[in-house]
Structures are given as C-alpha cells and as structure tokens.
Amino acid sequence: MAAGLFVLVVLVTLGITFWAGRRSRAAEDFYAAGRDFSPMQNGFAISGDYMSAASFLGVTGLIALYGYDGLLYTIGFLVAWLLVLMLVAELVRNCGRYTLADVLALRMRERPVRVAAGVSGIVISLLYLLGQMVGAGTLVSLLLHLHSSAARAGAVVGVGVLMVVYVTVGGMKATTWIQIVKCVLLLGGTVLLTVLVLLRFHGDVGSLMHSAAQGSGQGAAYELPGLRFGHKLTDQLDFVSLGLALVLGTAGLPHILSRFYTVPTARAARRSAVWAIGLVGVFYLMTIVLGLGAAALIGAPAIKAANGAGNTAVAQLADALGGTVLFGVISAVAFATILAVVAGLTMASSASFAHDLWAQAFRHPEEEPPTERQEVVVARIAAVVIGAVAIVLSLYAQKLNVATLVALAFAVAASANLPALLFTLFWRRFTTRGAAWAIWGGLVPALVLVVFSPVVSGNAAAVFPGAHFDWFPLQNPGLVSVPCGFLAGWLGTVTSRERAEPDAYAELEVRALTGAGAV
C-alpha cells in the first residue's frame, strides 16, 4: 500500500506538471507563473516551499533525540519570517522581476552583481537540495525496506529525475501548484499525527513531556539545554551561530524571494507573507508535539538504530500510532514534501543561471540580447545540469541530518545575499563594488568554513568520517561568515572610487515604497 501511495503522489504531481506546462509559454510564465496567484494561494505555496524535509523529518528527529536543543530549530525557522515580512517581501516584489539580482541591478552596474548573485543563488540552492535529497533517500529506503547504499542511491536518482521533469516541463506555474497541494497534504498529515499523539496521552502535555524524557534515555537533561549544544564555549558559540543563520537566512533564500514575484502587487506579496507566517507557525508548533511523541513512543535508541541522524522519527511514529496504513500515508506526504521543495529549488537555481548569468553577465554589451524563448530553453537545460550535480553531491551526504544540511544553506544565504539586499534597499551610499564584495565576502568564507568544519570531516557522522581537516570547530559558520558579508559590503563601498548614483537610489526608493514602475 505504501508503495502505491508513493506512485499516486508521483502521478498526481506529474499530471499537474503537464497540465501547467501547456499554459507556460513566455518567460514570465516560466519564471513567475504569470504573476496571477492570489495572496492566499501564494501563502500556501511559500509555506510549501519552506516546510521542507528539514522541517518535517529533520527537526522532528532532532526534537526526539535532543529535546530542548532540537526545539531551537523550530524557533529560528519561525522567527525568521518576521524579518521577511517587515523588510523584504513588499520591497523585493516592487524592485525585482524574477531574481534577487534584478533588485541589485536596479541601481548597480549589472555584470558584477549578476555574476555574484547568480553564483550565490546556485550554491545556496544546491546546499538546500542536498538536505531534501538525503531525506528522500532515507524515506524511500525505510518505506521499501531497502537498506543497501545502492538502493538509497537509486531513490536519490529517482527524485532528481522527477525534479528535473517538474521544472523543465511545467516551470514556476507547475511548481507553485505542486507546492500548494503539498502544503495542504503536509498540514493535514501533521494535524492527524498531532491529534493521535495527544489522544494517546489524553491531552496531558505534561505527561507527554515526562514520557519523552524517559524515552530519550536522558531523563531530566532532555528538558534542559545541552544535549546537542553542550556547555563548553565552543558548543555555546555553535548554538549562537545556528540561531543567527536561521533567523537571518530566510530573507536571503533565492527560492523564497522568487515566490514574491508570482503575485501581481507588493500588497499581495505582503499578504502572502502573512499567510505564510500563520501556516508555518501552526506547523512548527505541531512538530514539537511530534518530536516529543516520537521520543515517548519510539524511544531515542530505536530512532537512532533506524537512522543515526533521526530522519526517520516521523515515519516510525506514524507506524507506532496507526500501523502500516498511517505509515504509508505519512511517508507519501513526506515524499510529496520533498518533491515540491526540490522543484522550487531547482527552479530558483536554473533562473539564476539563465536569467542572471547566461542572459546578462556572460553576454558582451554589444551582443544581441537573447529572446525570451532562448532564455527559457537555457533555463531548462540548466535545470537538468543542476539536478545532476545535486544528485552526485547528495550521495556523499546520506549520514547527515537534513535539518543540519539546510541550516548550512541558511548560513550561506544570511552571509552572502542578505547583506547585499539590505544595503541595496536602505543604504544610499552603497556601490557596485560594495554589492559584489558583500556577496563574495559572505559566500566564500561560509563555504570555506563548512569544508573545514566537523560537518565534513573528523567524526563518525561527517561526510568523510576517516579524514581529519576539521580545524574550524563550529558546525555552522554563520557566527563568522555573516559579519564577514556585512563588513565586506561596507568595506567595498567606502574604498570604491565610484560614487553611488543618488538618482538611481531615489528611483529605487520610490519604486520600493510605492510600486511605481514595478513589473
């Protein structure tokens, strides 16, 4: 039955893709879904994009294994939306067209900022994709009882092929509808599991927490800080670094920013963000109950035995509460979650390459600009290539918790994209050099620190457990790389020979605040 539900999810999403593909003709249809989605529809789509495998599988597993410390992920993911609502959603919709680079290029020289923003968008999307693909491999191998590395690799390849089909055939319109359907399914499945957990404990949250503490094997320590982020200075700094990345990263994620272009006005973008905050907030409240329920009913030892990173906790909880039927339903919902998010990420990264790099940055000023049709063709080819790269990279990251992987993407977004975006919108003196330096000055340190962190080497759960080049002690680079991005943007501006164009900033300010001239 479980396998049949998986097939049903795939068939439904493919049906949506081919239906939408016949209605996507111009570049605006492919990149921005024709800008005709309502705020409520877009709010559900944003939530579908945001509530990824990291949230449903990874965060629930972290709460089940580490209690209080796992809960910190939910707080960071949710608080981040306040920054998006107040500073980003409406202004980005007014200033841009398809990507973050469109906002930067409105008052900067195009080539330097498009190269930097395009590369950054692709890198962030790939990092985020790794988390989703790892979740797919874990889920399919658990569902079909396939425990060999070859079977898991086959699952990853299958998801990769599907995500390429979604983007190349259906574009943003298909991706949006898939995300809306996925959001409804995910919220429905999460509500069902939450109600069943609470009924098992007769609505007594105190009893649930006590049972979770006992099931974790940690006793009272489960309800206190320190199980994942210990009490040493390095551990505390790692916690601060993670919080900084989660709270600031959402406002710089390419696939989230691109969602604000699918509505007709800035007011609709703001209302979309309000819808997203409500839906995401309810969802994360329920993941707390699911994490506690998994610890109480399954126990940390059994969760770790199935998957050391805790990625299977939700599926094991569903099996314990409702047997094979509920296990199949929840696994299919989780699979739909992964498919929808990887489609959105692939869409964002292919847009960064085709629209920012190929059509603008790599083209000589005297060269004839490409047609919209040519640009869309290149975006579809880029989706295939990026999908292949994501598949290969994810095969090396199967032992990592998906929430940890996604937190790295948040750190890179907060370090590279957010400084350039905020300086562009709010600093009158900001220059082209400052924008390029902000992106490179956040992106390069973040990636270098990740490579030399415990995530990649130095322990049994790392990508290369037998190697030891983990000289950077923190698992998340945000504490160092985010200030680097802001500092590089400031330094590039104050050392720049060119001066910011006051007329260009005035035009951006008027457009950002009023929508005059917005696409």
Automatic annotation (TrEMBL):
Source domain of life is Bacteria
Q: Which subcellular locations apply to this protein?
A: Cell membrane
According to its UniProt entry, the protein's GO biological process terms are: monoatomic ion transport; plasma membrane acetate transport
Signal peptide range equals none
Please name the Gene3D superfamilies in this protein's record.
Sodium/glucose cotransporter
Q: Where are the transmembrane segments?
A: 71-92, 113-130, 150-169, 181-201, 239-261, 273-300, 320-345, 377-397, 403-427, 434-456, 476-494
Principal subcellular localisation of the protein? membrane
What Gene Ontology terms describe where this protein resides (cellular component)?
Answer: plasma membrane
Q: Does the keyword Ion transport apply?
A: yes
Keyword presence, Ligase: no
Among Pfam families, the record links this protein to: SSF (PF00474)
Membrane topology recorded in Swiss-Prot or TrEMBL: Multi-pass membrane protein
The alphabetized UniProt keywords are: Cell membrane, Ion transport, Membrane, Sodium, Symport, Transmembrane, Transmembrane helix, Transport
| Entry's Gene Ontology molecular function annotations | acetate transmembrane transporter activity; symporter activity
Member of which family? Belongs to the sodium:solute symporter (SSF) (TC 2.A.21) family.
Q: What is this protein called?
A: Cation/acetate symporter
Protein source organism: Streptacidiphilus jiangxiensis
